[in-house]
Amino acid sequence: MPIKFKALSYIYNKDMPYAHKALDHIDLNIRENVVTAVIGETGSGKSTLVEHLNALLLPSEGSLEILDYEIRANEKQRFLKPLRKDVGLVFQFSEYQLFEETVIKDVAFGPINFGFPPQEALKRAADALKLVGVDEDHFEVSPLELSGGQKRRVAIAGIIACDPKVIVLDEPTAGLDPQGAKEIIELFIDLNKKQGKTLIIVSHDNEMVYNYCDDTVVLSKGKLVYHGPTDELFADKEKLKEFNMLEPQIVSFRNELIDKGFRLSKEARTLDKIAEEIAKQVKR
């Protein structure tokens, strides 16, 4: 079932003189088993929106339906633990949350907390670490001895080991070099393609959004201003201007080629595919 926000609002410091409405009556259906980006300027409400998905924040008004759970404003929630198992949230700079004495214990902590027997939790942890590219030689070392990129991978393995149905990524590539960022995103895209995980990615990186995300949600000052196919958003120059967004470089390059008379299909979204289609036209 899709994820449904129904007239959801969130107010920080509610009933206080300095109350701030961070989300304002959001009506939004996010498709399951696809990759959805959440974008917008700083302070638009992106992180506030996704922190509702595993009930780190609860609605001030309205409601949210996710998987088999419904969260309503002003109602006591009785199912937060199973919800948080099914919806994994990868924070920006998630490596700062590492705390156990060894890498394998840190990754196994989540599964144990959600009720898996210790041996199964350790197996899940080992499998998740291998999946994210952490060498077995590092399993018994302290997480604090790892490089920044390795720490990020260990933190992500801790989420994957719990086998959530929905994975929420809040600026997952922040602070990583370009190659490290590409590897992390492609790891999650692989989970979406092979295991059907629903991915929701908060990002400022329009290039990454264009390359990897099926749908895009745009927020502005706490309001929903766009939700639809990513291709359509970045093909609409008026919307990009309205939302104060830059075209991804590959889109600008495509448009320049089309202006010069080349015919490019919608599938020509990468340099390799564009080069392939141009080569056929030049040969003719």
Describe the structure.
Helix 3 (103-113) crosses helix 4 (118-131), helix 3 packs parallel to helix 5 and helix 4 (118-131) packs across helix 5. 39% of the residues lie in helices and 22% in strands. It has 284 residues and is an alpha/beta fold. It has 11 helices and 10 strands. The model has no long low-confidence stretch (mean pLDDT 92). The strands form 2 sheets. A 6-stranded mixed β-sheet has the order 6-7-8-3-9-10.
Brief digest:
39% of the residues lie in helices and 22% in strands. The chain is of the alpha/beta class and 284 residues long.
Distance between the termini: 48 Å
Low-confidence stretches: none
Overall body shape? globular
CATH topology of the domain at 31-56 and 78-229: Rossmann fold
Characterize the largest beta sheet: strand count, sense, and whether it forms a barrel: 6 strands, mixed
* Overall number of strands: 10
What would the average pLDDT be, to the nearest integer?
92
Order the strands across the largest sheet as they lie in space.
Answer: 6-7-8-3-9-10
Search tags:
alpha/beta, six-stranded mixed sheet, Rossmann fold, four-stranded antiparallel sheet, 22% strand, single chain, 284 residues
